[in-house]
């Protein structure tokens, strides 16, 4: 293998942006016959297609809604083909676990034109779409009210909990979006919202992530009515506030009720935003109860010094309290049918090779990061989907020696990153180097804490082991000679996967193979979360679902040292100079010795924590792994 500096991730970033921007609904490639919504009312449990031209199961969205079974046993998707659907729709409370997915917001439009003065119906009956159900997702749709400048006219009325809107447009004028419900949590990601007066209003806890908020007249953007007992109201993060060219005087918000809460974080504000920012709705008492705040506002409309005195400018530390985890905390579950967070996830990039090197090079100026370099003696087979959770796919990459004349040992390799960050590519240089030595290696993607908490990652990695064994003939693997290796958090996961075989750790699987491994390699992965040497705190709490005081049984269950029914395996410990990453090692070795099970320890006395990423220790680490596995596995 060659060692060199890592190249820029610019082209990868461009590809990622392009791929996300062009992700449209994938309608199932199955025979579709029109269905009778009256005969099937409340009975459908499978994915369905709506198409105005008759090429789907139903011609209208309303017919599809009538057909869906309430309290579904598992999620389904309603694919909506392009068209302008003039329908006034209500999704009732018993409708749950459904995704409504259009092709794009430009060509998949739900529209109606009711308004408050029409037949004296009042604001709350003017909706185009009313959402009362829970655990629902909406993608690639436009929802509009076309009544015009005639007073209150709602496009979207939402009161359900765990609602997600992605890549959607909400078009209207006054009161475009009624985001409400005292117990409702709603996520709007990559959406466009326009209106005139109070066009985002209500009592929900709603996070607007990377949205464009467009004002069509001099007026107010938000009118929150947050209940006193609710900690968060409306939170706008990484958004952009725009306006029509003639619009010059817009307020960020005014309180529909006392105790209203609205916060803008890292938001670009156009010059249409007035310097004072906020309005009290001519109620001085409201100034004492509302919480209006900003952090990191920028652009011509960002005027921290001129904001009203009863608003707030958050410190960087205070702004951290508006992390998506915090905003959507609640007494109800945060997970969906598959165990993933209902509001999806964003890849957390805090742990990567470039940033790790920039940090470590200050103390170790001689180091160079090891870059991925293909090998002429290794076959690369990438992008294998080993597990599906709804639309979520988990993948692994396999590296095999080209000239192998017999079945080879396999190594499943798990990256680190504090259980919340990192990427399987961090393991690729070592995977290729081990493949050059005759092993078949697989680097594995698994769900991190922003997506799903413990034990999801354990279930994922065990499924990866099973998948590799099921596909052993494809890669030339001896299924009786499979080891697992991990670094940092990945080391902890590798040890826990390798030492467990009870149902709580296995998860559900349809694969006819065991997740058992023959040996474990742990590079600076803790063996006990609660231990005198351990310093695990916030990142461990995020993964384990709470602090030790809150979840002691989970902290212990996730600690290989404290397993109640351990399946001990030979373990290689490769360590840095920092004791915190060795927590539980000596006690575990004592237990292994009692059982007569082999272990090795190798310590690099003057090394950074991620020593395996750098040229100074890479070859030595490689040699230790190979020497250990030669003693345990048959090559």
TrEMBL record:
The active site is at residue 198. Residues 47-327 form the Pectinesterase catalytic domain. Pathway: Glycan metabolism; pectin degradation; 2-dehydro-3-deoxy-D-gluconate from pectin: step 1/5. It is an enzyme of class 3 (hydrolase). Pfam families: BD-FAE (PF20434), Pectinesterase (PF01095). Keywords: Aspartyl esterase, Hydrolase, Signal. Its EC number is 3.1.1.11. InterPro entries: AB_hydrolase_fold (IPR029058), BD-FAE-like_dom (IPR049492), Pectin_lyas_fold (IPR012334), Pectin_lyase_fold/virulence (IPR011050), Pectinesterase_Asp_AS (IPR033131), Pectinesterase_cat (IPR000070). The keyword Hydrolase applies. Transmembrane segments: none annotated. It catalyses: [(1->4)-alpha-D-galacturonosyl methyl ester](n) + n H2O = [(1->4)-alpha-D-galacturonosyl](n) + n methanol + n H(+). Residues 1-25 form the signal peptide. Belongs to the pectinesterase family. PANTHER family: ACYL-COA THIOESTER HYDROLASE YBHC-RELATED, PECTINESTERASE 53-RELATED. This is Pectinesterase. It comes from Algoriphagus halophytocola.
